[in-house]
UniProtKB/TrEMBL annotation:
It comes from Roseivirga misakiensis. Belongs to the AlaDH/PNT family. The lineage of its organism: Bacteria, Pseudomonadati, Bacteroidota, Cytophagia, Cytophagales. One of its GO terms (cellular component) is plasma membrane. The active site is at H96, D270. One of its GO terms (biological process) is L-alanine catabolic process. Its EC number is 1.4.1.1. Pfam families: AlaDh_PNT_C (PF01262), AlaDh_PNT_N (PF05222). Substrate binds at R15, K75. Residues 149-297 form the Alanine dehydrogenase/pyridine nucleotide transhydrogenase NAD(H)-binding domain. Keywords: NAD, Nucleotide-binding, Oxidoreductase. This is Alanine dehydrogenase.
């Protein structure tokens, strides 16, 4: 198979979809890999590294899309890329369709095959290609939140862990999945007073067993969230419904109950956000303020630590990429239910039900293409 790895062009996105070691694994199996020039520089990989691994370098993004049967990316295509995508071309990347209708409609119109990292799902409901970036984003959420609590950056001026004789900050984490768990661990490690909320009592029991003493667990419901936000200094939104838009757990009118200088970090922003006032921001302009509450809503948080993120992501995606390249997407997805779950749009049809529901689009069962 001919595989193309274009340079990411989203604002401050420095990750790359394949490392030189990943390229070597593909080329030794007889596949041809084209990497756009400087695609890996932001993650610490030179063009020479890729050539040594067996790739060919192309100077432009247009040439990379034009030659490839499968495109491997990190972030969803943005508008300048829409016209470059060919009919029947396989795109293997994060899409988060349910949060952005123009992207969904563009992929329907170009009749490509869109296999989304975030909906590849194992039998136990785990999301193997979302986990590594969720781990990074969860840890970064606390790191960024602690930073923005500083007064010069718009926060209330609290040190997350306090000092002897001064109480630590209160951190509220909404969601006990991968993101929430990592965020809570980081906050606890810095000495904060942490509360993590989830709708699953079994998950809260698990967290109660593994978390340190300065982490409390609490059932997530509207009443409890309204009560907790009043005394929280940092609130981290970590809610995920695979492939679907995140529910709004914090609404616009709830901001008035928060202290001035409270910091909100919404990690669910790429799925529409679990905070109603959330809107996607960039690393160049990461924050905004509403009602004296600071919002940090960067949609590609792991892009700020590209070396770590690229290695973590490709550790997870490479086995699936090899399977797709070896067999083609149809055979690979027929033989792998978890890969089939990643299919969202195929040749103009929406085959992932949550995406169809998000925009009231016709839904076509994926079996149409895999029988």
């Amino acid at each position: 198979m001919i595989i193309g790895v274009p340079k990411e062009i989203k604002n401050n996105e420095n990750r790359v979809a394949a490392t030189p070691s990943g390229v070597a694994e593909l080329t030794k199996r007889g596949h041809t890999v084209y990497v756009q020039s400087t695609a890996g520089v932001g993650s610490g990989f030179s063009d020479e590294d890729y050539v040594t691994a067996g790739a060919s370098i192309l100077p432009t993004i247009e040439e990379t899309y034009a030659i490839a049967e499968m495109i491997m990316k990190v972030k969803e295509p943005i508008e300048p890329e829409y016209k470059l995508i060919k009919e029947d071309q396989l795109l293997f990347t994060y899409f988060h369709f349910a949060s952005y209708e123009p992207l969904t409609k563009a992929m329907i119109e170009n009749k490509s095959v869109c296999l989304a990292y975030e909906t590849v799902e194992k039998a136990d409901r785990s999301l193997p290609l979302l986990v590594p970036m969720s781990e990074v984003a969860g840890r970064m959420a606390t790191q960024k939140g602690a930073n923005y609590l500083e007064k010069p950056l718009g926060g209330m001026g609290k040190l997350l862990g306090g000092v002897p004789g001064v109480l630590p900050a209160n951190v509220l984490v909404l969601g006990g999945g991968i993101v929430g768990t990592q965020a809570a661990k980081m906050a606890a490690g810095l000495g904060a007073n942490v509360t993590i909320m989830d709708i699953s009592l079994n998950r809260l029991r698990e967290l109660d067993d593994i978390m340190p003493a300065n982490v409390n667990t609490m059932m997530s419901n509207g009443y409890n969230i309204k009560a907790m936000i009043k005394d929280s200094d940092l609130i981290i939104g970590a809610v995920l419904i695979p492939g679907a838009k995140a529910p709004h757990l914090i609404t616009r009118d709830m901001l008035k109950d928060m202290k001035p200088g409270t910091v909100l970090v919404d990690v669910a922003v790429d799925q529409g956000g679990c905070i109603e006032t959330c809107k996607p921001t960039t690393h160049a302009e990461p924050t905004f303020v509403i009602d004296d509450v600071l919002h940090y809503c960067v949609a590609n948080m792991p892009g700020a630590v590209p070396y770590t993120s690229t290695l973590a992501l490709t550790n997870a995606t490479l086995p699936y990429a090899i399977d797709l390249a070896n067999k083609g997407w149809e055979k690979a997805c027929k033989e792998s239910k978890e890969l089939a779950m990643g299919l969202n749009v195929i040749k103009g049809d929406v085959v992932y039900e949550a995406v169809a529901e998000a925009f009231d689009l016709p839904y076509v069962p994926v079996e149409k293409y895999l029988d």
